[in-house]
């Protein structure tokens, strides 16, 4: 399974967002990771639908990887689909019914469906939803959601359990994404455990050579 890089736009220069998108494209980044925070589910507020719409128009090649860190994702999935999302990931810890939200993304939008889990949530929590056969991705948080620049927490065992379970039930193409503290040193840890999509923010945007930084994450 190929390795992909999703750049967290939270770390970009917001005053020059279109030029930042061009930088990502030239560096062969695969996706733009778009964190949506409501100030309730996490103690921070970030972007919303109008910004995603603009981002979709600016991004010519990369998928829009939308991560909903909000209390009631079911209420908003269709709106984010309409705004241009390619992947919609929401948290199992949110207040929305998990199975219904997955089913809505899968059946009523054109987006891939992703399910995210916080560091304290066990791998086994996602197993019943993998069984549904409607999930395209599991996002394993390697930091507490809400703020960038946190220290990486090793979730190798959790990633390994999810990958092994997906293989057992025949979901061989299930993507496992990791988000939090990903750089050239931590990327091999999560990839060796079975992750194949790496979210990275400050490591990419602060790199002197972004393309080289991307290559280090992918190899």
Question: Key terms for this structure?
Answer:
219 residues, alpha/beta, TIM Barrel, 8-stranded parallel β-barrel, 9 helices, 20% strand
Q: How are the secondary structure elements laid out?
A:
Layout lengths: L3 E5 L8 H10 L4 E7 L11 H10 L4 E7 L7 H6 L4 E5 L6 H11 L3 E6 L9 H4 L6 E5 L14 H13 L6 E5 L7 H7 L3 E4 L1 H4 L4 H9 L1
Parallel strand pairs: 1-2, 1-8, 2-3, 3-4, 4-5, 5-6, 6-7, 7-8
Helix pairs in contact: 6-7
What does this entry look like structurally?
With 219 residues, this protein is an alpha/beta fold. Strand 2 (31-37), helix 2 and strand 3 form a beta-alpha-beta unit. The chain has one domain (4-218): Aldolase class I (TIM Barrel, Alpha-Beta Barrel), CATH 3.20.20.70. It contains nine helices and eight strands. The protein starts with a strand and ends with a helix. An eight-stranded parallel barrel has the order 1-2-3-4-5-6-7-8, surrounded by five helices.
